[in-house]
Amino acid sequence: MDPLPPLNALRAFEAVSRHMSFTRAADELGMTQSAVSYQIKLLEDRVGKPLFLRKPRQIALSDAGGRLAPKIREAFATMREAVAGLSDDTSRTLVINTLETFAARWLVTRLGSFQLAHPEIAVRLVTTQNYVDFDREEVDVAIRVGTGPWPGLVRHKLMDIRFTPMLSPALAETIGGVREPADILKLPILAPRDHWWPLWLHAAGLDPDALKGRPDHRMSAQALEAGMAIAGIGVGILTPDFYPSELALGQLIQPFDIICTDETATHWLVYAQSRRNAPQIRAFRNWILSQAGVEGG
After folding, report:
1. Any alpha helices (H) in 48-99, and if so which ranges?
2. What is the signed CA dihedral for 82, 84, 88, 92, rounded to 10 degrees?
3. What is the domain range of residue 126?
4. Are residues 169 and 236 in the same domain?
């Protein structure tokens, strides 16, 4: 068998391909930029092909580099996990990246059972509206909304998001109650340009464009819109599965059984293919799929 290329060269290639920068890779590895460039040149000489395309002020992976990078990243991830598994410290940290509303209204109310089942795993929850980059950010798993697929990531469907108008009882009483779908149009609407509104209006037999021209009160997260709805500021288009206690306590009402779904709002658990066997990821995957009522994978 042909001997492997020098480990330092492979390590430099893994870092540069992840950062897409010789400078940032050098900082991470504690090397000079010229030393990193030298290691890449050694590897390119070994494989007989360029691994990067040098462009003004940027680099890109060549065809050969693009084929090699995922395998090398996976190999280094496997080695890191193998070494970590030998540590006397059995404690592990699970970093979860998720959307604010999903975290606040679904995940945190259930996380206690995960921690009881896995006391050796410390959980760190990070919320963001943006997709996390698994190659560049410290994260183990993420909850994404969309349709996918996402290259390099394993995905498991958690749930389709359902939505319907919800409001405070006090706001409904300002017009003598909400008895038919058209009554909704008599009230202030939160986020009237939300693409869920036309879908629900159509399902309710109303003009999908009925809210056009209204002032657009836009919130960064559904949880904020729900808070405004509870305060009686307007009608929100919300996910009833996220607000069972508010409905039970009468802080919110769901006036109609007309509930819609949106395929683009499906929630997925995702994680890097190269880390699919990490113990903390396996444990969380099995737990959250059970909580969501779907089969584990």
Report:
1. 63-84
2. -130
3. 92-159+264-291
4. yes
Q: What is the pLDDT of residues 115-147, one digit of tens each?
A: 999 998 999 999 887 788 887 788 899 999 888
Please state whether beta strands 92-98 and 121-127 pair in parallel, antiparallel, or not at all (unpaired): parallel
Q: Which residue from 171, 202, 207 is spatially nearest to 189, judged by alpha carbons? A: 171
Q: What is the CATH number of the domain that holds 63?
A: 1.10.10.10
- For residue 23, the SS3 value is helix
> Measured between alpha carbons, how far is 129 from 131 in angstroms, rounded to an integer?
7
List, for residues 220-254, the tens digit of each pLDDT value. Answer: 788 889 999 999 999 999 999 999 999 999 999 99
Q: Give the pTM.
A: 0.68
Domain assignment present for 99: yes
- Give the number of other Cβ atoms within 10 Å of residue 216's Cβ: 12
Is 297 inside any structural domain? no
